[in-house]
C-alpha cells in the first residue's frame, strides 16, 4: 500500500511533470472507483492542473480554481504516468486494471490502476478536500506533529502500539510497512500497550518515526512513479523480509500473520528475544 513517502513522491512528480497542463479528457473505466458524481467527469475537459499535494495517504490534484481530484490508492492501487498513450480511443468500462485515465493537452497523462480482485481504490472530484470522509477524519500529519502532540495522541488511544500507529485518525500517513520499520528502529514490540509506554520510549518512538519517514521521503522524491515501489522495498529493514537476517543484530526476521495482513519484527531487537505468538493460537507476548 502506498504510504506517506510514496504519495509525497507521486505528488512531487505530478508537480514537475503535469502541473501547468490542461485536462484533455477524463475517462472512467471502473465506475465503482469514482465516489462522486457532481461535478461530472466531463466538466474537467480544458481545466488546468494547478497543484499536487497530499493529505496523509490521499493524493490531491488541484484543477482550475476550485476543484480537487482526491485519490486513495488503497492496498493495490497505483499511478502510472504515460508520456503518450498508444491509442486515442476512450477507455471501455470493464474488468481491466485501469480505473481512471487522465489525458493531458501535450499527449501525456496518467492512469490510476488497481491490481487484484478486491477493488478499494477511491477517486473523488470535490470542491473542498474535507468533503472526502477519509480526509475529514485524518489526524495530524506524521511529519508535522510535534513531540508533545505525538505523545498526547499516542497515549490518548488505548491499544497495541502497532494498531495505534496505523490509525489514520491518530496520525495521518503511516501504514503497515513503515510502522514495522518505525517500531524496529525504536526497539519496541508491535504489541506494546500505549498506556504503558514510558516518556523515554515515547521520545525514542517519535525520533524513529521522524527518521524513518523523512529518510523514505528523501529517497522517494525525485524518483519516477514506476521506480517508487522498488525504492520502497529496497529501503526496508524488517517489513516483508521474513526469514532474512535483521540488518542490525543478524537474528532472523519473524512474522505474525492475521486474516488479511501480516507484520514483521526482530525478536532480539524488539521483544527481548521472545517470539511473538499468533493471536489466533495463543496469547501474545508483549
Automatic annotation (TrEMBL):
InterPro entries: FPG_cat (IPR012319), FPG_N (IPR035937), H2TH_FPG (IPR015886), Ribosomal_uS13-like_H2TH (IPR010979), Znf_DNA_glyclase/AP_lyase (IPR000214), Znf_FPG/IleRS (IPR010663)
Keyword Protease in record: no
Pfam families with a match to the protein in the record: Fapy_DNA_glyco, H2TH, zf-FPG_IleRS
CDD domains per record: BaFpgNei_N_1
Alphabetized GO MF terms: 8-oxo-7,8-dihydroguanine DNA N-glycosylase activity; class I DNA-(apurinic or apyrimidinic site) endonuclease activity; damaged DNA binding; zinc ion binding
Every Formamidopyrimidine-DNA glycosylase catalytic domain range: 2-94
Superkingdom: Bacteria
UniProt domain FPG-type: residue ranges: 237-271
EC number: 3.2.2.23, 4.2.99.18
Catalytic activity: Hydrolysis of DNA containing ring-opened 7-methylguanine residues, releasing 2,6-diamino-4-hydroxy-5-(N-methyl)formamidopyrimidine
Cofactor annotation: Zn(2+)
Protein name: Formamidopyrimidine-DNA glycosylase
Organism of provenance: Actinoplanes campanulatus
